[in-house]
Amino acid sequence: MTVKLKTKLKIIAVQVIVFCHAPLALAEDSVEFNTDVLDAADRSHVDLSRFATDNYIAPGDYLLDITINGKAIGQSKIHYDATADGKSSRACITQDLLDKLALKDEIRAKVTEVYQNCYSIDSIPGAKVTNTAGALNLAVPQAWMKYNDPDWTPPERWDSGIAGVIFDYSVTGQLTHRFKGEGDYDSLSGYGQTGFNVGGWRMRADYQANYDNKEHKSNFTWNQFYAYRPLPTMAAKLTLGEIYLNSRVFDTVRFTGINLESDERMLPPSLQGYAPEIHGVARTNAKVTVSQSGRVIYETTVAAGPFNIQDLRNAIRGTLDVRVEEQDGSVSTFQVTTANIPYLTRPGYVRYNVAGGAPSRYNHRIKGPGFVAGDFSWGISNAWSVYGGLMTAGKAYTAITAGIGRDLNVFGALSFDATESWSEQPDENRIWGTSYKLSYAKTFDEFDSSITFAGYRFSERDFRTLSQYLDERYGGYDNLGREKEMYTITGSKTFWADDPRMATTLFLTYTHQNYWNRGSQDRYGMSVGRSFNIGNVRGITANLSAYRSEYNGKNDDSIAFSLSIPVGDSKWAGLDIQTNNSKVSPMASYTDNSDYNNLWRVRAGTNQDGRASFDGYYMHRSQLAEINTTASYQYDDYIAVSGTLRGGLTATRHGAALHNSGATADTARMMVDTSGIGGVPLNRGMARTNSFGIAVVPDIVSYNSFDTRVDVDAMDSNIEASKAINTSVLTEGAIGYQVFGMSKGNKLMATLRLADHSTPPFGAEVYNKDGVSVAMVLEEGKAWLAGVNPNETLKVNWGGKNQCEITMPATITDSSTILLPCR
Questions:
Q1: Cα–Cα distance for residue pair 508/491, rounded to 1 Å
Q2: Signal peptide location in the record (predicted)?
Q3: DSSP label at 710?
Q4: Is 429 within 8 Å of 383 (Cβ atoms)?
């Protein structure tokens, strides 16, 4: 039997002893071990004292994972004190950790403070503190805690992160070469956010830029300068600076001032709202830009065919302008109304939004009268909610809203409100008008269908929103027209949901909008998708999407049909047929999504004029950025390429790292420190530590539990991780920070010798400079060292403290056992 194999067997023997403990003499919480079962020549020279007492931890400070009632809540530095008899130790619960228990006030009063910032929860009935490897486990009966929602982490356990600097960007470029006619066209655009975090405050600046060679112009604009901070105890958010009013009652307006609003993302999931989606069809590879009041809030490149944008921020309200720029130079636009579901609030709860300031333009100058605004919703009972609001700029402008919401149980939810406005005209006459709104939503579980939103709104000729008033009074124009009537409906239905071979999903949307001072517009849309099997071919999918836009008597029709047939693992052959205003374009395609970080598709066929056509896209997810590229070719017409690059940089006192990013404003990010060891993959390859051992996992949903995971199976064989997962909940915009104990290096057998030529006792532990255990000492001082490096100094611990140190040689080989003096 080899030395290495015998060593591993003896380590297993120690583990068996620890778990079975073969007691000779029992105390209440301590145990002595029968060392006779060990295959050791000198059984008197054994130190298993740290296993002798239940949950014994040697006195000192430790960075431990914390769990509360079995749920991981992150890491914390814990100090262990020795008890009076010196035979056991006790964990000091800090005030910060005590707060995370979210105890009821009367139970919190029973907790005793042993000394400053050191508490004991022994006085809480049923409470228990235990230890496992690298973790402190707190168990408290749920009856003594404020919250009881297994799908939600209470505010006391949220992490506001650390101080740091961020820079996120999204850049889209397009090159088009025409074989004749208009010549070449190049464009470059981008948007993003930069800023820094200090404590709970997030300072931010949003920017956008574009360049167009056709018009020979370029510009760079700082859209907003603002600061905000979450207020978890109030379930609210405070914002200062240049703000876009985010109200459920009043339309969006840009102003400079202060805003305090309820943030329902801080509520349990069952009480939260929704985020808008955008559906459409691109005739070619296209750039899609979503803006609101001229501010770009989302931009990307999409492949030809139907697209569905689902990752918009759930804080967006109002009307969104969508621009689809095809690679052949044509442009189509439409609007999406992000009206919310009926405005209902849980019983006894009040949602509110209070703002004050003065309207401001994109040049950051104040233009318009100062105003104050406030709206609220109060849940009277399970069935009824009332809501309303007031916005006033004195004599210049005033609007008041009152509404009521009703939960109709099996019939859905309904709300109705009316808004009255008074506004001063340029001739100083005052006009007034009313706007009425009706909203309805219903999920039919028994029919596997839902009406996501249905609404109707009518505004009288003299009704004005604050933005309309400002445009007329100070801009001399009405940019978006004065809305007269709008109704919209979106819904979905799944047929044969119980049979995966037959399940078919239908999505419908319709919006009608007309104005007092311009023509009306309508947009109809539908999509239907189904998966089915033919013989031994399983997972065939078919999708049909159709959209029509009507404006000023003109129709713009788009229809897309796609059929995909599996030809391998996450690979498909397909047929795509698109029509635009009765012109048909058939294309055969091949898609390969087998590599999550490298997705691509190619298509070939004819365009709508019958000319040969080719296009393709490629998306690459790397640790540094996300890249989306597309290319199109149409015979005797043009060749075009485009791409979007998204990424970011995050820097703190612990280090800095480039990373990919969705460039959204309200997400958090996690900085991971792997003790200076690079190349450690995280979260299925989403990030990888750089040469300094730092990585950033981006786009973490705020106020939701998130697991940061080390991809152990994908690590290099010479890297050892002391743990593989950390769990945390980050507040909006936070930069989280987590440390994973790592060791990297050689593996070898060594014999440890003390100065008197004796050896450390059997069971002694060897630690590296980061406190990661790299070996346990066996008989005759032998130790199997894992993850050690040349010239590295290691500490040897027994008897509850560090006893000596060993230094690795300048050259390490795995061929034989080396002798290491322990001084």
A1: 5
A2: 1-27
A3: B
A4: no
Rounded distance, CA 398 to CA 387, Å? 17
Q: Give, in degrees to the nearest 5, the angle at Cα 349 between 346 and 351.
A: 100
Per-residue pLDDT reduced to its tens digit, 435-463: 999 988 877 766 666 776 778 899 999 99
Among residues 161, 141, 157, the alpha carbon closest in space to that of 233 is found at: 157
Distance, CA of 202 to CA of 353 (rounded, Å): 20
Residue 779 sits at φ, ψ, to 5 deg, of -65, 150
Phi/psi of residue 125, nearest 5 degrees:
-55, 125
**DSSP summary character for residue 472:** I
Nearest CA to 472 out of 525, 503, 427 is that of 427
**For the chain, what's the residue count?**
823
Look up residue 520 and give its amino acid: S
Q: Quick one: residue 445, left, alpha or beta (phi over 0 = left, psi -120 to 50 = alpha)?
A: alpha
First to last CA, the chain: 32
Distance CA 505, CA 492 (A): 7
Q: Which residue, chain included where needed, has tokens 């080899």?
A: 2
State the pTM of this model.
0.76
Backbone phi and psi for residue 382, each to the nearest 5 degrees, phi listed first = -60, -25
How much is the pLDDT for 18?
A: 43
Confirm if 781 and 751 have CB atoms less than 8 A apart.
Answer: yes
Query: Alpha-carbon distance 216 to 511, whole Å?
Result: 37
Cα separation, 325 vs 197, in Å, equals 36
Q: What angle do CA 523, 416, 450 make, to 5 degrees?
A: 55
Alpha carbon distance 339, 488 (integer Å): 9
Q: Which residues pair with 34 in a beta bridge?
A: none
Q: Spell out the residues 6+ positions from residue 18 whose beta carbon is closer than 8 angstroms to its own.
A: 33, 48, 51
Tell the residue number behind the tokens 């919480």, with chain if given: 29
Nearest partner of 461 among 475, 478, 442, judged by Cα: 478
State the Cα angle at 158 between 155 and 162, rounded to 5°: 140
| Alpha-carbon distances of 58 from 244, 797, 802, rounded to whole Å | 55, 10, 11
Spell out the residues 6+ positions from residue 709 whose beta carbon is closer than 8 angstroms to its own. Answer: 682, 683, 684, 724, 725
Q: Determine the Cα–Cα distance for residues 506 and 527; give it in Å rounded to an integer.
A: 6
CB-CB contact of 102 with 147 (8 Å):
yes
**Coil, strand or helix at 147:** coil
Quick one: how many helices (H) and strands (E) in the chain? 4, 56
Residue 275 structure tokens = 């985020």
Distance CA 327, CA 156 (A): 50
Q: pLDDT digit string (tens) for 398-435?
A: 999 999 998 887 777 889 999 999 999 877 788 999 99
Q: Quick one: what percent of the chain has pLDDT higher than 70? A: 85
Residue 98 has phi, psi (to 5 degrees) of -65, -40
